[in-house]
Amino acid sequence: MNITYWSDIACPFCYIGATRMKRAMKAVGLNPNDLKMRAFQLKPYAPQETTENMLTQFATSHHMSKEDAQSQFDYIASMGEKEGLHIDMAGAIPTNTMLAHRLIKWAETQLSKDKLQELISALYQLYFERHVSIASKDELIRVASAFGLPAASTLNFLDSNQFEAEVKADMNLAYQSGVSGAPFFVLNQKYGISGAQPYEYMEAALKQVLAEERKKSNDEN
Asked: What are the DSBA-like thioredoxin domain coordinates in residue numbering (predicted)?
């Protein structure tokens, strides 16, 4: 089964949704490492550097108190905990995610599928747990190095514009397909799942598509 999803590293629901989808894939006998990520930037014009943390920016942009913003962040954290994830939104640094998306595209050409999934998870952790800038080349090089990608090669790549067109192409495809937010999953280029739906919903959807695949195979034979 072909399963792709649009995601942004700065999106907690993408982190949660991808984790649920991979768990559902494993439950129905599919390889979670076959889940393919497409780039989506929730804020493509976000700055490369900022002195604000997410709590301050979120409260200001949504015209609410920091207490109300923290309440929403606590709810997201509780969602993450149920999936074994640590998501601390308040201290995240809301910078541009283009470099991270480009790194994922490049790493896809360098790493095995399982290592690529681990690298993507490491980037989520960088953002939501460690609270360092996802736009920092030094931090991205450290992550890449942990997966055997040479620091010099990673720096040369990050200093270029390689895979920027591919990242933008992913986003353009999303817009052309009517996808306006992330996460958004597509099963067999036919069925869409919007948002971080409950695990049970995702598992049921996978079972339905697998049943259709088996029926089609039987009919053809």
From this structure: 3-207
- Provide the β-strand partners of residue 191: 187
Q: pLDDT digit string (tens) for 52-91?
A: 888 888 888 888 898 998 999 999 999 999 999 999 999 8
pTM over the 0.90 mark: yes
Dig out the tokens for 201 from the structure.
Answer: 């919903």
Q: Which two tokens stand for residue 185?
A: 């999953």
Q: 115's torsion region: left (phi>0), alpha (psi -120 to 50) or beta?
A: alpha
Topology of domain 3-220, CATH: Glutaredoxin (3.40.30)
How far, in Å, CA of 168 to CA of 173, rounded? 9
SS (H, E, C) 133-198: CCCCHHHHHHHHHHCCCCHHHHHHHHCCCCCHHHHHHHHHHHHHCCCCCCCEEEECCCEEEECCCC
